[in-house]
Amino acid sequence: MAKLKGQLFARLALDYADHPKVVSLSDAAFRAHVEMILYARRYETDGRIPKRLAETRWGTESVSELLGNDPEAPSLVEQPSGDYLLYGYADMQETREEIAARRQVNAQNGRKGGRPRKTQSVSEPVTDSGTRKKAETETETEHSPTESVVPRKRGAHQIPDDWEPKPEHRQLAAERGVDLDLEIAKVRDWSKGGNNRRLDWDAVVRNWIRNARPDRQQHARPNREVDSRDAIVQAHFDMQQMGAPS
């Protein structure tokens, strides 16, 4: 893979397009979701999408699809402020704090004279094709924002057993209508079950709460199936009132 210096990268899982939430989207909503991810990564918004931008650039129909493509974890979540948040953004992309930490490490390495390129470590190729594949993988890892770039090298760790939520977490959970104890339990399972390590677990939990689906939004979401059925019943009643055969 060619080296693209200065370029930013966003991550998409290889099965992204086959995910049940994504495969049902229209072409316009699919494109909107991808472009929202790229926008958030480029401007380091931690997944936040301004309401005016979303509805002007991608249209209300695409936004509506992304808000309703899953009953528990839709691709887009409406915030109390009216803006939107990409669900699970921090699980796949670097957050602003992680980017700042990586840049600080890179700056320190630069002051020390830099570090050897990763592709120089390929010293015992088995075959020509095997060597090329490994070199390409390492180049991609070096220039795309994968997890290995960020915290695991310097002090990253799983969430401590004695970690406790701070007042800021409780306040944010209350504002979002989120069950804080449940979300923290999910964070612990995610960290321990997948050996996921981070530098700043306070920041991880904050982002997790922001991505959590607020209960009040679940209750507020209209039942489109019921609405559609009611509309059909009403239309049938109107036809009867006008004398049309039932």
Radius of gyration from CA coordinates: 23 Å
Largest sheet: 3 strands, antiparallel
Secondary structure category: mainly alpha
**What is the count of DSSP helices, taking H or I runs of 4+ residues?**
12
Uncertain runs are: 120-153, 216-227
Overall form: globular
State the strand order across the main sheet. Answer: 1-3-2
How would you spell out the order of helices and strands?
HHEHHEEHHHHHHHH
Number of strands: 3
Calculate the terminal CA-CA distance, rounded to whole Å.
Answer: 66 Å
Mean pLDDT: 76
Helix coverage percent: 40-55%
How large is the share of residues in beta strands? Answer: under 5%
Q: What does this entry show, briefly?
A:
The chain has 246 residues and is mainly α. It has twelve helices and three strands, in the order H-H-E-H-H-E-E-H-H-H-H-H-H-H-H.
